[in-house]
């Protein structure tokens, strides 16, 4: 798993490495042209970076730049590979001229290519790596990455050599060592190769933005920083401090950096883990919501069945009651009334049991309160209302006050309330002409300091007596299409949140359902 943003960043680093190498090559050439020794030797007594090496780095940097993009034109790739081949040739020339096997080519005097053999070999290997990069085969990209990685590790020895003024290669081979700017440029090209197509080869773990990726990135970052610092700092600080002092200073700074990076990493991983748990929890909750919704749907289908079931005990109750009345009228003994009365009791209990079962089906388990932005909750609820049913043909207007603070609510439950009220409003307006239909949702902080949501419609409204009953269970004017439990559920949800739900309406003047929620 790697995010595009993160990958682009790594690719940019690779591009930056390419440019830096070309810049370094140009600076060294400038130094040669103007006799500025510091630019190609850094400090007296150190190996020199030859103009030949500088030219080769212009080749190498340009090749890295051309080969870096993920999808490039064939021409660009071929040009990159051509430059890489050029780099290999220059490396070979460097070796040949070092051992005086060839001293000149046509008019060209190869003295300026007489660099350390280490440099020549490094150019050949680096440019082979670059050439492989252009072949775009994961296995070859892996080879190029590994080669770059191993050379980077070898460079550590070279940089250590600068710190101690003792180059191991020089000691082993007796040949002159690599110059400090040269080693730096090779380190840059090495990282450039490693990162250029980092998502494809062995080191693709670096491109991951999951925990593993984070760890590797931090470790690699430190590794990239350490060798050049080891090489450069002693040169730069040498006037005031000895090499050993600079080195111990660097060691303590590095240890500190490592500890800080590890602590930061631990925090980052911790946050990620918590986030993941939260997402998991939310997913679980959504699942329970879904089950709840499914219950509600099933309930719709079951409604007629339940009505039928309740009808049976109610009809039986009526029959037994009639029988009792008749028995009383004909002067029967009160003793004989016992049997039908007991039957009435049983049937009434049966009806209430059916209702109880239905309520447990509708009631949701513990509310899951979270801090939420009410505006967002309203948007989502309206969106669900729009997408959830038949075509609405009713404009929904919003007046949401920015000053409304976040509220601690069960988001799904409050959405259910809003959806239920808006759906009722829309259904109530089906009778009136479509031009007059409109639902307005307002949110604000009321005088008592509660957050209030008003949902108004331009429908037929309701009479005073009916207003008293709308929140009672099973009150509906929709016949078989309604169950009359929506508003009753809404009221219990709002009251469980510590708020209030009420309606204001005049017949013919529309209705406004309002609910409040406490601010924490
Ligand atoms: P249902 O929608 O299943 O009937 P509710 O409890 O949601 O159950 O609504 C109860 C009744 O309240 C509805 O049948 C309807 O007659 C009335 N009602 C609800 N909202 C409005 C409204 N905006 N305008 C007029 N009457 C309404």
TrEMBL record:
The UniProt entry, under SUPFAM superfamilies, shows: ATPase domain of HSP90 chaperone/DNA topoisomerase II/histidine kinase, Homodimeric domain of signal transducing histidine kinase
Reactions the enzyme catalyzes: ATP + protein L-histidine = ADP + protein N-phospho-L-histidine
List keywords of the entry alphabetically: ATP-binding, Coiled coil, Kinase, Membrane, Nucleotide-binding, Phosphoprotein, Transferase, Transmembrane, Transmembrane helix, Two-component regulatory system
Its taxonomic path starts at: Bacteria, Pseudomonadati, Pseudomonadota, Gammaproteobacteria, Thiotrichales
Write down the superkingdom of origin: Bacteria
Q: What residue intervals traverse the membrane?
A: 12-32, 44-66, 78-99, 119-136, 143-163, 178-198, 219-237, 249-267
E.C. code: 2.7.13.3
User: What's the protein here called?
Assistant: histidine kinase
Molecular-function GO term, any one: protein histidine kinase activity
The record's listing under InterPro entries reads:
HATPase_C_sf (IPR036890), HATPase_dom (IPR003594), His_kinase_dom (IPR005467), HisK_dim/P_dom (IPR003661), HisK_dim/P_sf (IPR036097), Sig_transdc_His_kin-like_C (IPR004358)
Signal peptide interval: none
Q: Which residues form a coiled coil?
A: 269-296
Domain (Histidine kinase): give its ranges.
Answer: 305-520
